[in-house]
Q: What sequence folds into this?
């Protein structure tokens, strides 16, 4: 198994957490998203993923893209420990929490969007960072409301074991902290974040612990 990853990529971070929770060994293939104009645009990598995005997981010749699809694939092919609840309503809630990050927060703030804001639209660094903080802070406020108002929230986003929702939440908090976003308005989110980082699988996946960390 081979993971094409960038240490700061939150989508790659998600897959690293899932692999660690499943106890799966893999080869780490670094794809630097800034050096050399972005190594993700190299012909060899684009042959793996035409979207020129990380992560990509090669599972013995089965090449997978998109972090959500990869994590669910891992859960289906290596079902222990499970990353989704056994009941349909629980699975829907966990997916909704994960998608609140993956669809409503992350796409507005990833590297290519920030690059377009500054390089094409000519916004200042101050304006770009204000854009970033606005969407992260308002998006996380929504996640907070989903968690704090639901009795199914436990030590983690759903119950007392980590799920897909936690896998998506933690990398987004790392990004929020990196850009100095306000987080005092999301106490449930931060409690769960700290609980996750106490687990070896989450701690092993953090950006600073990766082979390509700078």
A:
């Amino acid at each position: 198994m081979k993971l094409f990853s960038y240490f700061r990529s939150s989508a790659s971070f998600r897959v690293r957490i899932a692999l660690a929770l499943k106890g799966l060994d893999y080869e780490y293939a670094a794809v630097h998203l800034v050096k050399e104009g972005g190594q993700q645009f190299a012909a060899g990598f684009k042959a793996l993923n035409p979207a020129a995005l990380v992560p990509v997981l090669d599972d013995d010749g089965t090449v997978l893209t998109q972090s959500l699809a990869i994590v669910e694939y891992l859960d289906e092919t290596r079902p222990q420990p499970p990353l989704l609840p056994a009941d349909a309503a629980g699975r829907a809630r966990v997916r909704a929490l994960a998608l609140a990050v993956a669809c409503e927060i992350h796409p507005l703030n990833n590297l290519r969007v920030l690059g377009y804001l500054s390089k094409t639209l000519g916004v200042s660094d101050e304006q770009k960072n204000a854009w970033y903080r606005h969407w992260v802070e308002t998006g996380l406020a929504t996640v907070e409301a989903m968690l704090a108002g639901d009795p199914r929230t436990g030590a983690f986003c759903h119950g007392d074991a980590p799920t897909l929702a936690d896998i998506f939440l933690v990398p987004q908090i790392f990004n929020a902290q990196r850009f100095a976003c306000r987080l005092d308005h999301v106490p449930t989110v931060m409690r769960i974040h700290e609980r996750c980082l106490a687990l070896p699988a989450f701690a092993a996946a953090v950006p600073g612990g990766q082979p390509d960390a700078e």
Notes: The radius of gyration is 17 Å. The CA atoms of residues 20 and 27 lie 13 Å apart.
